[in-house]
Structures are given as C-alpha cells and as structure tokens.
Backbone:
C-alpha cells in the first residue's frame, strides 16, 4: 500500500514540477548575487545569504531559508491537501476503499508518501543549493564560518547541515499534518490546501502582533527559523528543542483527529 | 440456496432525511438481481452501505455470509464493484490503473497480476488499448475499464451500479452478454439501475426501491406471470364484446382484454362468431407496469409541503 502511494506520488509529473519550481527561486537569487555582487548586509535578508558570497558551501542553508517562509509550505500543503481529498474528487477513493485498502492503512500510506515528498523536496533544495553555491561562488571546502563568527570544521558543517535538513523536514510535517487533517474533511483538495495555508498565514501574522504574545510560543510557525541556531557556536538548542516538541504535539493531535474522522465518515464522493 | 447479500432493517439517515428506510434485501447465489428505483430512491446509498463506504444508521449487512463492514478485509476482495461510474487516474494508462488498484488491497497476488490484467482487458474489449493515458479514453472505454477493475480477482459477487452507462447499443449488448456468461459460470450479479429494459432482459430476481423502502422483491418470472386473461387484437372490438358477452374487461383501440387464460379457446369462439382476429396472446404485465404500480412517484420530484399542518 505504501509502495502504491509512493508510486502514485513520484510517477506524477506535477510532483516533479513542484520540486523544480521550488528550486527556481534560490537559483534566481544566486544568479542575481553572482552578477551584482551585492550581498545583503549581515543580519539583513534571509539568513546565511550575507555569507554566501565568501563561502558558497553555505548556500544550501541560504536556499532553505529562502523557500522556508512561503514556497516550501505551499508545496507541502498542496501535496498533503491533495492526498485524501484529491482521491475523493477524482472518485478513486471509493474504489480504493471498496478494494478494500482499509481506511487506517490508506491514511498511513498517504502520510508516509507526504513525508517522503517533504524529505525529498528539502534534500533536493539543499543539494541543488550546494551545486549552485559551489559553482557560482567561491567555495571554502576546508572550513565554514558559524553565525557566531567562529570557525567550523567541514565535518561540523556537514553534520549541522544534516541536522538543519532534519529540522526543516519536521517543521514541514506540521504543515502536512494540517493539510492532511483538512483533507479528510472535504472532497476539495484546493479547500484542504487553502485551509492549511490559512492556518500558517494566521500564525505568521499573530507572531508579529504584540497583543498575541501570550499565545506566540504555541503558534505553529513560531520556531521555523530556529534551524539557524544550529550554526551558532556552541549550538543553541533551546528553540530547536521547543520547535521539535511543538511540531510533535501538532502532528500527533492533528493526525489522531484526521484518523478519527476518516475511519468513521461516510464516503459519498 | 445460499444467501449472498442479506440486509436486515437497513436504515441510513442523513440529517432528517431517511435515505434508506429499513430495507431487507435477499440476494441468493446465482442470481442476477435487478435493483430498481428512481433517481434519489436510495439505490446508491444502499450499494455504498453494502460495500462499507457508508455506515448504516441502523440495521445490518451480510455479504457472502460475513458481517459488513467488520469483515470488509476478508469479504471485499471476493467482490467486484462498479460504484456510480468509473474513476481512474487520468495521467496513467488503463493497465497502470488496474495494477495500482490491485496492489492496494489484499487478495490480488502480484505474481498473477499481469496475466489477470491481460485477461480482463481482453474480456471487456480493451485488449488493444496500449499505453494511452486514461484521460484520452472515451466514456465508453472508461466504463469498460471500470468493469475490468471489478473483474480483476474473479469475484464471486459483482455489485454494479449502472454498468452500461455511456456505452453505445453494441457495447451494451456486448457487456450484457459478458455479464450473463459470468453468471452462467457461477458469479452472482447485483445490478443497480433505473433502466427497466436492461433489468428486464437480464435479471432473474428484482427488488424495487421507492423513497428508501423496498416495495417489491420477487422473481422476475413471478412478477410478470400471466394474469389469467387473454389479449385480443382486432379491428372490430365491438363485435368481440357482442360475441363474448360479459368476459371483456377492457377495450383500448384495437386491444381487447378478455377473461380466460387459454388463447386457443378464446380464438375458437371469436372465429366461430366471424370476428376478424389479428393477434392473440395471454396477458402478462410488463416489468414497467409492475414497477409503476409498486413505486408511485418519481424520487427526485420535490413536492410543496402543505402548510398549517
């Protein structure tokens, strides 16, 4: 069942188009930087971008930081929102369940395939970022510079980049959980996607509002950029751990709710 | 005979509407069961309850002797279904669609998958369709592919909702032959339709649904059995009335209904009296007459409710 869902997802041209589009923005930024040599000053613009001109190996992180606020969540919400509602809209959901695929098994398989999409997307963005960064800019393979200014060994830099990829993936799973949750309630994939995006927009908006500060620690987007802390020296774990715990709670609650709804609902699509 | 589909007091309520209102279906092994009803009478909801897609408000469903939806995992692989029209992934070929569907549940070994897919595509007349994506199929081809999906595991029971929808007359005849052939080989066929002619040509037993209630369930041969009267066709109906005093029950143009179940006897009397007779047959109700008598109004007509009650 999981293999079937992965097959459906990755045999679909749309999936690869999405990933390609997602890589276009960091590429455009890199080309502009290279042509103009005008990097944002440290502390301005997306994280890491200021350091990229001097060290291209940091570009994977800059690329992730560029797509993280908007493009990546949209892509994840589209795929996760489509997972159940898309089958319902196409009418294939009734045939899957009459096959019988089993409602819980189908939901788990959808979840795994969405997780695979998130992971593949994040890794591809990082990998393309690495290739772009090292071809367009000066690469310093010997060492990297931490955000705190000290020097990181290549091993440290690699390890922390992997951690960052993992952290971004977990953050995106929170988005996926919202979209999958809405996807079990509606027969319209667009509705599920927009529902998840509405949550994220609300969360980002409230985050900037002082009046909302009491609930700020619980907003799903609160700790998204905490992966930058992985490149401080020493690593600042506080926000990273909180971010992981928060996403864990969201994912757990939403998936339980999605399961409870999907296993007891009348399939009338 | 073993029961293949049994429902007891099956009820489905959507809000205040009772879409299915206490029906007791009884489909036996070897039947071609025609499930008739106007649009909106609850046919599709019933079919979905049989397959565990819609959960009943009350009552129970037994499929192949096992309780649904509890036994879905062991029962449904033995059932082939076409529910409210076919549905496929448009960007994949018909073959890929069948393969994915087969791999999505238990009871379809991957070792025999290719062979089974080839066989069913041949059966439904899509053997030469190649790698074309389903998006490029005509409506009739999609219907055939849907049927192929239902046949993929040689099911003991076929639950088909409007299986000839979108097919041309040759296609309809072809699919009818296929279903009858499968039935001769032992497959029980549950055929839901609003097309009376289709049911009349295929069904051995008939159930009629009217606004959520099963108003009729019997053998087709019993329902359309001779009524005991004879229908006479003649250009001079008045002379029939004169010759067979008191036995004429109805006159409609050239068609005269006469009491008596032996056409030969009626004929002898009329010829003896010199009445010209064009046609003569025992009177049988058509399925349409039976159904219309049992189910009164069209299901999707929405009448104005009287106020002040």
Residues:
């Amino acid at each position: 069942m999981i293999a079937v869902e992965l097959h459906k997802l990755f045999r679909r041209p749309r999936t690869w188009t999405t990933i390609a589009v997602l890589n276009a923005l960091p590429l455009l930024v890199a080309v502009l930087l290279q042509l103009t040599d005008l990097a944002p000053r440290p502390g301005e613009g997306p994280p890491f971008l200021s350091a990229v001109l001097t060290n291209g190996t940091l570009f994977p992180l800059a690329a992730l930081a560029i797509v993280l606020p908007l493009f990546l969540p949209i892509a994840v919400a589209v795929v996760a929102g489509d997972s159940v509602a898309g089958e319902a809209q196409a009418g294939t959901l009734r045939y899957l369940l009459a096959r019988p695929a089993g409602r819980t098994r189908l939901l788990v398989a959808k979840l795994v395939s969405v997780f695979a999409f998130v992971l593949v997307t994040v890794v591809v963005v990082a990998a393309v970022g690495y290739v772009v960064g090292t071809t367009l800019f000066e690469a310093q393979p010997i060492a990297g510079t931490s955000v705190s200014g000290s020097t990181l060994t290549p091993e440290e830099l690699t390890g922390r980049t992997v951690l960052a990829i993992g952290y971004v993936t977990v953050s995106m799973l929170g988005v996926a959980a919202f979209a999958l949750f809405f996807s079990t309630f509606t027969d319209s994939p667009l509705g599920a996607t927009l529902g998840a995006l509405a949550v994220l927009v609300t969360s980002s908006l409230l985050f900037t509002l002082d009046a909302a500060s009491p609930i700020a620690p619980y907003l799903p987007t609160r700790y998204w950029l905490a992966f930058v802390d992985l490149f401080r020296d020493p690593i600042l774990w506080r926000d990273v751990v909180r971010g992981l715990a928060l996403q864990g709670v969201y994912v757990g609650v939403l998936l339980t709710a999605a399961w409870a709804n999907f296993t007891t609902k009348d399939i009338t699509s | 005979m073993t029961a293949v589909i049994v429902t007891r007091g099956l009820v489905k309520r959507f809000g205040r509407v009772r879409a299915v209102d206490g029906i007791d279906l009884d489909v036996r092994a070897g039947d071609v069961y025609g499930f008739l009803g106007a649009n909106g009478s609850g046919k599709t909801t019933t079919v979905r309850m049989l397959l565990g897609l819609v959960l009943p408000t009350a009552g129970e469903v037994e499929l192949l002797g096992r309780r649904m939806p509890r036994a879905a995992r062991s029962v449904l692989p033995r059932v082939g279904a076409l529910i409210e029209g076919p549905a496929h992934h448009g960007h994949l070929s018909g073959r890929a669609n069948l393969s994915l569907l087969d791999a999505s549940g238990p009871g379809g070994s991957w070792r025999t998958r290719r062979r089974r897919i080839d066989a069913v595509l041949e059966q439904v007349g899509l053997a030469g369709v190649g790698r074309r994506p389903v998006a490029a199929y005509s409506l009739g081809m999609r219907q055939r592919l849907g049927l192929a999906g239902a046949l993929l595991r040689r099911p003991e029971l076929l639950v088909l909702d409007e299986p000839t929808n979108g097919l041309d007359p040759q296609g309809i005849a072809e699919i009818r032959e296929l279903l009858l052939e499968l039935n001769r080989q032992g497959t029980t066929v549950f055929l839901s339709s609003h097309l009376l002619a289709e049911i009349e040509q295929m069904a051995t037993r008939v159930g009629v649904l009217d606004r959520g209630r099963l108003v009729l369930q019997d053998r087709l041969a019993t329902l359309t059995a001779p009524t005991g009267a004879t229908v006479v066709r003649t250009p001079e109906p008045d002379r029939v009335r004169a010759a067979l005093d008191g036995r004429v029950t109805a006159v409609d143009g050239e068609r005269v209904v006469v009491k008596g179940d032996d056409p030969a006897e009626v004929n002898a009397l009329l010829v003896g009296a010199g009445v010209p007779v064009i046609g003569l047959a025992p009177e049988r109700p058509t399925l349409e007459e039976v159904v219309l008598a049992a189910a009164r109004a069209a299901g999707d007509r929405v009448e104005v409710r009287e106020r002040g009650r």
Summary: Chain B touches chain A at residues 48, 51-55, 72-73, 76-77, 79, 81, 83-92, 100-101, 103-106, 149 (CB under 8 Å). The radius of gyration of chain B is 24 Å.
